[in-house]
Write a structure and sequence with these properties.
21 helices; two-stranded antiparallel sheet; Serine Threonine Protein Phosphatase 5, Tetratricopeptide repeat
């Protein structure tokens, strides 16, 4: 379910970091303080744009960069044009304008290549990866991030290497490759600890810890995730954008711990923080979480639909495909609760299509489970059983390949609904074997396969 944001670097090298929703990763765009423009008017606009961003006025900041771009496009000052395009890409991404961000980063990359500026090339590749990720092009995003990583290793820029590792980890996380994500986040944390005396190390340790918390949360280790998130929120120097994302993560953990009231309080805090930042992507994500809490835990389905609708409208407007995927999933499931099966099925098929496009394991399983429930409600048990068994098979394949051994049992835990539905449909006689004894054997086989995998996983994870 994760989505990324970016960080900003002013022309004088001041940085303000941006966490991710769900996976909590940082994407840093920090061009070097290059030569100042000889055009005083353009120079003033660049300074004003940077100052406006630091004040939280992101829309006004982007407008200033566009004004500066008009002037610099007519000059020979390519270095300042690079700074302008690079920073404009970052601001546009923070505003949810991912097509604009991609265009600006692409232009910055071309300028950096012309200038032979390896740092500029690395940062532009990083920003292109960010925009591609939000636009649902995860394979391209991974390629861009890996290109940036190679350049930064060549330049021996350890801070940027840590940043690139975190961003690659987000792609692995989004794709369901939790073992890979966990390994990458641990490498990032190890580097941040190794270079603890560097001024950037504290921020990068914070990011890596949050990323590890996201993995713990995903595999069902709620207490560990809670401890990590609460520890980070106690930091008095925590930037507001990171606090907003962490409040969102903390709310999810409280849901896992069966405390919807506390979860809703966390989401409302995050919503106010994202609103004050003008962060459309953050607002969409929190609206999704509020809707899920209202629907699944508090059974306030009308309010939940309104919240999901708000989340989907924002995600569609800013073309955040990963966010759009989960908005569609949760809206579809909520519509099933209210009896609007036809619209629910339509939304769930849309979600499945987006999940396949984005390569999201969680999205594909969730869509299959929702379609199975819809078929069951519609009196089509054969179709329902097919969807549930396909979902279980998908999860089992991915679990064997991409989930760390110590966490496989936890990974299966939140998929028990699919197992239960498949057993219920098999025993009901409307799908699968025809005789009662055959149905019992088939149902028992499903249960034993599921329980045996969980038991073996727990035994493998236990110390000898």
């Amino acid at each position: 379910m994760p989505v990324s944001r970016t960080a900003f670097a002013s022309r004088r090298g001041r940085r303000s970091s941006r966490f991710v929703i769900f996976a909590v990763a940082l994407v840093v765009a920090s061009p070097a303080p290059l030569a100042r423009s000889q055009d005083d008017a353009a120079n003033r606009l660049l300074d004003q744009a940077a100052a406006l961003y630091e004040q939280g006025s992101r829309r006004e900041s982007l407008d200033k960069y566009r004004e500066a771009l008009d002037l610099l496009g007519k000059s020979r000052d390519r270095e300042s044009l690079l700074v302008c395009c690079s920073n404009a890409s970052v601001v546009a991404a923070n505003l949810g304008e991912y097509e604009v961000s991609y265009s600006m980063a692409s232009r910055a990359l071309g300028i950096a290549v012309d200038l032979g500026d390896l740092e500029g090339q690395a940062k532009s590749l990083n920003n292109l990866g960010l925009a591609a990720q939000f636009l649902g092009r995860n394979n391209e995003a991974r390629s861009r991030y890996c290109g940036a990583l190679a350049l930064n290793r060549e330049r021996r820029d350890i801070e940027s290497v840590v940043t690139n590792l975190g961003n690659i980890g987000v792609i692995e996380f989004n794709s369901g490759r939790l073992a890979e994500a966990l390994s990458i986040y641990r490498r990032a944390l190890a580097l941040a600890r190794e270079y603890a005396s560097e001024p950037w190390a504290v921020g990068q340790r914070r990011i890596a810890t949050a990323n590890l918390g996201a993995v713990m949360e995903k595999v069902g280790e709620s207490s560990l995730a809670l401890e990590m998130y609460e520890s980070l929120l106690r930091d008095p120097d925590l930037p507001l954008d990171q606090a907003a994302s962490l409040h969102t993560s903390l709310g999810r953990v409280f849901l896992q711990l069966e405390d919807p009231g506390q979860a809703l309080s966390c989401f409302e805090i995050a919503s106010n923080e994202f609103e004050s930042l003008g962060d459309a992507g953050g607002q969409s994500n929190v609206a999704l979480h509020i809707g899920a809490t209202l629907c699944q835990r508090l059974k306030r389905h009308g309010e939940a639909q309104a919240s999901f609708g708000k989340a989907l409208e924002i995600a569609t407007r800013i073309r955040d495909r990963n966010e759009e995927l989960f908005d569609l999933l949760f809206l579809g499931k909520c519509l099933l609760h209210t009896g609007d099966v036809a619209l629910a099925v339509s939304r769930l098929h849309e979600a499945l299509s987006v999940a396949q496009e984005c390569g999201s394991l969680e999205g594909r399983w969730s869509a299959m489970f929702g379609l199975g429930k819809a078929a069951e409600v519609s009196g089509r048990p054969i179709d329902a059983l097919k969807h549930h068994l396909e979902g279980l098979a998908l999860v089992e394949r991915e679990r064997e390949s991409h989930v760390p051994d110590a966490f496989r049992a936890g990974f299966l835990a939140d998929k028990e609904e699919s197992c239960a539905a498949a057993v219920r449909l098999t025993l009901g006689g409307g799908a699968g074997p025809t005789t009662p004894s055959e149905r019992m054997v088939h149902a028992f086989g499903i249960v034993e396969r599921f329980r045996a995998r969980s038991l073996l996983d727990r035994l493998e994870a236990a110390p000898l």
